[in-house]
């Protein structure tokens, strides 16, 4: 069902002017022309938009709903016309994003700094926290999620890439402590574990045939920060299980070597998610575009 834009403009003018006569005066139309336009609109929509008495004019429930969306649509059209007239697209307002702490620090923050520099009237608030936020209740426009997403009709998702965990160590450590040829060999090596909420986390691996394994490392060192685990591994203190995107550079230049190359974790998807809504602000769309354009390549390139 299509509704003429001019008719919507007249409807919005009547609501905001408070009467047909005032709207007609503002629009330089006759009162009859305004009344007929509203009547055609109501007939087309199949609902009454106004409650009419001899002295007052007020919106019905349907009229209130239609006004809210019509006002928003006209505002967006006006904004688009202004931007086109200026010859550029510029985002404004506050953009709030939630992302996992380390991933957000390395990948999301630089992209959002770049976006903010391109749009002087845009403010970006990036919350780096490993907890899963409620986008609507917590007031976020976007969130970055690593892992399988739960089924929900409240969020929309766009995949940006994949995340997996790799076993790695320095050449110096492996030369000193010997090779690792099987999973059982790990028991004879010094390992660096990840501790979360006071509990040492298991390593989840799979081989080339997708056979799954889980083991709890006999960790000599336990840390609750992946950067700290990486630094400990780089100091030749043992074998670590780290995100591939965190060690691209070290694997590329040889300062870290992948241990048991036939074993890695399963792939976990990385998504950007946002609230499901018929209306997407320009700032949100531009941020999503920035992620989609840049992150897939960055996730496979040394940084």
UniProtKB/TrEMBL annotation:
Molecular-function GO terms, alphabetical: DNA binding; DNA-binding transcription factor activity
In terms of InterPro entries, this protein maps to:
LysR-type_TF_proteobact-type, LysR_HTH_N, LysR_subst-bd, WH-like_DNA-bd_sf, WH_DNA-bd_sf
List, alphabetically, the CDD domains matched.
PBP2_CrgA_like_6
What are the alphabetically sorted keywords of the record? DNA-binding, Transcription, Transcription regulation
Superkingdom field: Bacteria
Pfam families recorded for this chain?
HTH_1, LysR_substrate
Domain HTH lysR-type: start-end pairs = 1-60
**Keyword hit for Transcription:** yes
* Family from the record: Belongs to the LysR transcriptional regulatory family.
What's the protein called, per UniProt?
HTH lysR-type domain-containing protein
């Amino acid at each position: 069902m299509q509704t003429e834009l001019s008719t919507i403009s007249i409807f919005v003018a009547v609501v905001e002017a408070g009467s047909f006569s005032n709207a007609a005066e503002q629009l330089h139309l006759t009162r009859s022309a305004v009344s007929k336009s509203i009547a055609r609109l109501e007939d087309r929509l199949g609902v009454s938009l106004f409650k009419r008495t001899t002295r007052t004019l007020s919106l019905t429930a349907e009229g209130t709903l239609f006004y809210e969306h019509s006002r928003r649509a006209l505002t967006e059209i006006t904004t688009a016309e202004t931007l086109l007239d200026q010859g550029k697209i510029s985002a404004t307002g506050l953009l709030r994003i939630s992302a996992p702490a380390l991933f957000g620090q390395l990948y999301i923050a630089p992209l959002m700094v770049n976006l903010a520099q391109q749009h002087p009237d845009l403010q970006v608030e990036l919350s780096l926290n490993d907890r899963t936020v409620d986008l609507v209740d917590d007031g976020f426009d976007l969130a970055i999620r690593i892992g399988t997403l739960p089924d929900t009709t409240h969020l929309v998702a766009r995949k940006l890439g994949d995340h997996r965990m790799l076993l790695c160590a320095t050449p110096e450590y492996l030369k000193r402590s010997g090779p690792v040829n099987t999973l059982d060999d790990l028991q004879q090596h010094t390992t660096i574990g990840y501790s979360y909420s006071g509990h040492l986390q298991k390593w989840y691996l799979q081989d080339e045939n997708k056979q799954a394994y889980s083991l709890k490392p006999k960790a000599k060192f336990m840390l609750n920060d992946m950067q700290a685990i990486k630094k400990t591994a780089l100091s030749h203190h043992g074998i670590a299980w780290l995100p591939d995107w965190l060690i691209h550079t070290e694997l590329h230049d040889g300062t870290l070597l992948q241990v048991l190359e036939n074993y890695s974790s399963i792939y976990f998807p990385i998504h950007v998610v946002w609230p499901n809504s018929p209306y997407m602000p320009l700032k949100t769309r531009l941020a999503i575009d920035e992620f989609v354009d840049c992150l897939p390549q960055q996730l496979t390139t040394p940084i």
